[in-house]
Specification:
By secondary structure, the protein is mostly helical. Helices cover 54% and strands 0% of the residues.
Length: 76
């Protein structure tokens, strides 16, 4: 299993600097098949959550919203 840093290094070395799949294992120590898999996979993408949970704050969110609405109304 390769880490994200290694994945990015492999992709950059092959695609930007033009090293072949046969040259990268000397730098990384990974097998040629692992290098090939890393190049064929989609890059890691972190997405935002649809709903953020607040387990500790949840009971107090209504009060906080009232406070914030009161502050915004007073300043507007």
């Amino acid at each position: 299993m390769i880490r994200t840093e290694q994945y990015e290094y492999i992709r950059a070395v092959c695609r930007v600097y033009g090293k072949s799949i046969w040259e990268v294992p000397r730098d990384t120590g990974h097998d040629r098949k692992t290098i090939r898999k890393a190049l064929n996979q989609e890059p890691f993408v972190y997405g935002s959550r649809a709903v953020q949970s607040f387990p500790v704050l949840e009971p107090h969110l209504a009060i906080i919203d009232q406070w914030l609405n009161g502050i915004w109304r007073a300043s507007a």
